[in-house]
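4.2 Preliminary Data

To establish feasibility before requesting continued support, the project team ran the inverse folding procedure on a target of 316 residues. The structure was first converted into the token representation described in Section 3, and no sequence information of any kind was made available to the design step. The complete token record follows.
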């Protein structure tokens, strides 16, 4: 039996816009047709800004993509955009899927803090602060830089607006600073699609000290299914079960109630045998075969994320 499924990150919204495809049925990794195997399904759609575009251009892109996203929501009778955890649960209880809007790479703010108001008005639930290099926000995972003054202002304003800061893609120093601001404010942050650095020391993965501080704040970490971030796959392809050492490590840090999945579908290569959202259920089978309890599998696939959204999404 398939579990309920909440996924914390995908790039599907941008791909739907680029290819002018429909969410209900398409040739991408995520469609409502492909997700129909799950009894209940909720997806965070992160609108990503291409590194080839300027800060101003990706803000313009965001407006266009989010308009297209809203049109997709309005044209479907099987999914609702939700802005808080109560709406998510209500969508499920009414037999519908749920969609949550997010943004990946806050450089689209381009030094204009007031743009956060527009993101909030459009229902953006979380904001991945950076993607690569240095931006107006701060340093990403491939740098040693921390937050800029503007980046610190953005994090503080996110807390005020109920937008959740996301430290996936952040440099170690940036993650430190975001977590310190969160601890001061008493607010959670997330890592929407990050694996364990101790298991595989890719710069995109999350350090132990950051994971533990994030858990202490009540945040959640989404396991990233990007094959390149699970292990070194130079000689042999990554398999679905290769994510399990990351699961075990996060559990050893106290992540039982803070671990979810952020698959990065339509944005990254997946392990062999996984190509669409329906294939994520393979991970549940692998976990069951390794002796994980059904309760723990359900927590990782949906219940931890549902609890987080009910407690913190626009409820601060």
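Position-by-position output of the design step:
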């Amino acid at each position: 039996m398939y579990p309920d499924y909440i996924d914390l990150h995908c790039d599907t919204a941008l791909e739907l816009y680029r290819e002018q495809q429909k969410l209900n049925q398409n040739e991408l990794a995520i469609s409502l047709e492909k997700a129909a195997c799950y009894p209940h399904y909720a997806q965070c759609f992160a609108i990503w800004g291409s590194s080839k575009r300027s800060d101003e251009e990706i803000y313009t892109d965001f407006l266009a993509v989010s308009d297209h996203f809203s049109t997709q929501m309005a044209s479907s009778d099987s999914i609702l955009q939700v802005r808080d955890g109560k709406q998510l649960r209500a969508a499920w209880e009414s037999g519908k899927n749920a969609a949550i809007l997010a943004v990946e790479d806050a450089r689209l703010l381009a030094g204009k803090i007031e743009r956060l108001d527009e993101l909030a008005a459009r229902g953006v639930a979380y904001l991945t602060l950076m993607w690569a290099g240095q931006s107006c926000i701060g340093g990403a995972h491939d740098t040693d830089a921390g937050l800029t003054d503007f980046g610190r202002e953005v994090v503080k304003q996110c807390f005020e607006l109920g937008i959740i800061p996301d430290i996936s893609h952040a440099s170690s120093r940036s993650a430190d600073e975001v977590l310190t601001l969160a601890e001061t404010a008493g607010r959670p942050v997330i890592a929407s699609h990050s694996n364990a650095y101790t298991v595989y020391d890719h710069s995109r993965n999350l350090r132990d000290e950051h994971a533990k501080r994030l858990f202490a704040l009540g945040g959640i970490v989404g396991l990233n299914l990007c094959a390149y971030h699970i292990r070194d796959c130079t000689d042999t392809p990554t398999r679905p079960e290769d994510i399990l050492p990351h699961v075990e490590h996060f559990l050893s840090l106290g992540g039982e109630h803070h671990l979810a999945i952020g698959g990065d579908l339509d944005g990254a290569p997946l392990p062999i045998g996984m190509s669409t959202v329906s294939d994520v259920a393979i991970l549940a089978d692998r976990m069951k075969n390794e002796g994980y309890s059904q309760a723990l599998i359900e927590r990782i696939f949906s219940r931890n994320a549902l609890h987080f959204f009910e407690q913190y999404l626009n409820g601060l």
